[in-house]
Design brief:
64 residues, binds zinc ion, mainly beta
């Protein structure tokens, strides 16, 4: 039996339910510094700075 993986929010330490939460990924402009990421619960993710980013791969259609 596969063990259930319990995700814990990296900010508040709360357990993140399956299919919930978010991953915050920080990528440095200096590629040598690499990147880091944090698992966040829904409420912490909402409180993080940032803006909505369009999904990759499709250009937004102009509204007719
Ligand atoms: Zn949290």
């Amino acid at each position: 039996m596969a063990r259930k993986i319990i995700l814990v929010c990296d900010k508040c330490g709360k357990e993140v339910e399956e299919a919930r939460g978010a991953v915050l990924r920080v990528t440095y402009s200096d590629a040598r510094r690499g990147s880091k990421q944090a698992d966040l619960c829904d409420s912490c993710a909402g409180n993080m700075p940032g803006r909505a980013v369009a999904r990759r791969g499709r250009k937004p259609k102009s509204v007719a």
